[in-house]
Specification:
Blueprint lengths: L4 H5 L3 H24 L15 E3 L4 E3 L3 H5 L4 H8 L1 H9 L1 H15 L3 H13 L1 H12 L13 H27 L11
Helix pairs in contact: 4-5, 5-6, 5-7, 6-7, 7-8
Length: 187
């Protein structure tokens, strides 16, 4: 059997450019997708890139640019854990940063995970410690640095509006005489 392979193997310039374009698109898509996939290595950073403790200054220092600039801002803290850690973060920014760097170094977390854990610790240290003990026993691992779901953000927004409306109505009502205010203890 002799087939004319020469004619079937020959490609026109347009078909080879189409195949090349398809391969280029597939390669770029696979690279883009793998850029968003979690790495197969352990989530703990190498000891070379972790925050280090300087014994002379008694302070933690970030070793890489990601450790210095990564993470999320005060609004991220607010939507994840509420006003208590935000107030602490804004009033004591240096202490907050030192706490995050210490968690990064001792636990091997990236900045966002360390910030989430430190915010959770500031919100309620007992619950945070209990959760960590449960994780060590093999229980549910909560990802504190992860952004809340859209549903949770919506529920938080509705609840926040109700609380703000209640206190606004209470304060303006007391001021206008709508709600008479009598002290519980008379001096």
């Amino acid at each position: 059997l002799h087939l004319n392979l020469q004619s079937t193997m020959q490609r026109t310039p347009t078909s080879s450019s189409i195949i090349g374009s398809i391969l280029l698109v597939l390669l770029s898509v696979s690279c883009s997708v793998s850029a968003f996939a979690p790495s197969s290595s352990d989530s703990r950073s190498s000891s070379l890139s972790m925050a280090k403790f300087d014994k002379t200054t008694q302070r933690w220092t970030a070793m890489t640019e990601d450790e210095k600039t990564g993470g999320y801002g005060p609004f991220g803290t607010l939507i994840r854990f509420g006003p208590k850690p935000v107030v602490i973060r804004l009033l004591n920014p240096d202490d907050y940063e030192q706490g995050v760097l210490k968690m990064m170094a001792t636990e091997g977390w990236d900045k966002q995970e360390a910030m989430g854990n430190f915010d959770a610790y500031l919100e309620n240290p007992n619950d945070w410690a209990f959760q960590k003990i449960e994780e060590k026993k093999g229980g549910f691992k909560r990802e504190y640095g992860k952004m809340p779901s859209t549903k949770q953000l919506g529920l938080n927004a509705v609840w926040s509006c109700v609380v703000v409306w209640f206190f606004y109505d209470l304060i303006t009502g007391v001021a206008s005489g709508k709600y008479p205010f009598e002290p519980l203890i008379k001096f």
